[in-house]
Model the fold of this input.
Amino acid sequence: MTTLGQTKLILWDDSFSVGEKTLDKHHQHLAQLINQLGGIDSNEIKSEEMVDILSALVSYAEYHFQHEEELMAQVEYHELESHRQEHIHFCEVVSEICYGATLGVISAKELFSYLTRWWRNHILLEDMKYKPHLAAISPEIA
Ligand SMILES: [Fe+2]
Done:
């Protein structure tokens, strides 16, 4: 397995599935973008490349969060507001990091470590809480 320091590339498995095909695809695409940072040698990567990946990550995350929040609203998910705050916070942090990357003060390694941790924790701890609620509108959820 490819590693960058102690941080492993994100490999998708069913434990990350929230039981809704589109959201799973979105989460996989976010993982791909994050993994791009992990696949590049920390010493080789230029800040412009990091900024490009981060910009793509923020815009895709905003698109995905909007869709996820719409589904949560459809099922009147009771934790929608706190979940929405988590999404806003993530976009703010990544935008700040993006600025740090333009200044060259953040390494790809640190960034990759933060983002993989966020991705895993957000899906497993936050997104999983809505899984049984979404089952009401997603028949493919077992
Ligand atoms: Fe989420």
Residues 29 and 73 are 23 Å apart (CA to CA). The chain has one domain: 21-134. The two ends are 31 Å apart (CA to CA). Residues 68, 83, 87, 122, 126-127 surround fe (ii) ion (CB under 6 Å).
